[in-house]
Design goal:
The protein is of the alpha/beta class. The protein has a single domain, classed as Rossmann fold (3-Layer(aba) Sandwich). It contains eight helices and seven strands. The longest helix has 29 residues, at about 100-125. The relative contact order is 0.14.
């Protein structure tokens, strides 16, 4: 890491896991771009962290290209990318799920991850200094939950993109890994977490008997982006309190 820190781009950084990850990198001395579709929220978080706010619709190639270029102009070429932005958008059995919900989740979680990875990887290749990509996946890619098949399918796709990108980009000195959380307390899950019965049902599936906080996720992201993980690529590591063991 240089004296000024690395240039780190985090998508979906205005709340939840993304915000915690952006804060962890900022506290590490890195120069962070808080990327989010919510302009006001991104601005507020960036102001708090001393970071750069960037408004991007990750489903739109032109918006992604403009955002990545803005980061390069203001901070320098991206050295670490964290693809965190993702949505659930609703739920229900596949037989009843509105196709509009399926399409929206695919657009954000899969298309968005692809578009940002493509833009940043090309920038990294041009800069010639290598880099790191960390994709936020989910244990749902490997452990199905009824009613969330649309979301979990996108996360399985993110895992596949992670492995393929790791192979294709290794020759450029770019490592690509994933972090797969179990349930995490975020604004997206706060309603369920505040419901005692729903929370107990969640925790009954977790050997450590607790739902993760965002602070349980960010240390692994920082590690995978660090020189200490210099020989790790193509891995998707779960942070689930042991849920996949059940």
């Amino acid at each position: 890491m240089t004296a000024a820190g690395r240039v780190v781009l985090v998508t979906g950084a205005a709340s939840g896991i993304g915000r915690a990850v952006a804060q962890a990198f900022a506290e590490n001395g890195d120069r962070v771009a808080v990327v989010d579709i919510d302009e006001a929220a991104a601005g507020a978080v960036a102001a708090e962290l001393g970071a750069l706010p960037v408004t991007v619709d990750i489903t739109d190639p032109e918006s992604v290209a403009a955002g990545v270029e803005l980061v390069a102009e203001r901070l320098g070429p991206v050295e670490v990318l964290v693809n965190n932005a993702g949505i659930v958008a609703g739920g229900g059995p596949l037989t009843d799920l509105p196709v509009e919900i399926f399409d929206r989740v695919m657009a954000v979680n899969m298309r968005g991850t692809f578009l940002v990875t493509q833009a940043v990887a090309n920038q990294m290749i041009k800069a010639g200094a290598g880099g790191c990509v960390v994709n936020i996946s989910s244990i749902g890619a490997r452990q199905p939950t009824p009613g969330l098949g649309h979301y979990e399918a996108t996360k399985a796709g993110v895992d596949a993109l992670t492995r393929t990108a790791a192979i294709e980009l290794a020759g450029h000195g770019i490592r690509v890994n994933g972090v797969a959380p179990g349930p995490v307390i975020t604004p997206m899950t706060a309603g369920l977490a505040d419901n005692a019965e729903a929370r107990a049902a969640w925790e009954s599936r977790i050997p450590l008997r607790k739902i993760a906080t965002t602070g349980d996720i960010s240390p692994l992201v920082l590690f995978l982006a660090s020189p200490s993980a210099g020989h790790i690529t193509g891995a998707v590591v779960q942070v689930d309190g042991g849920q996949l063991l059940m």
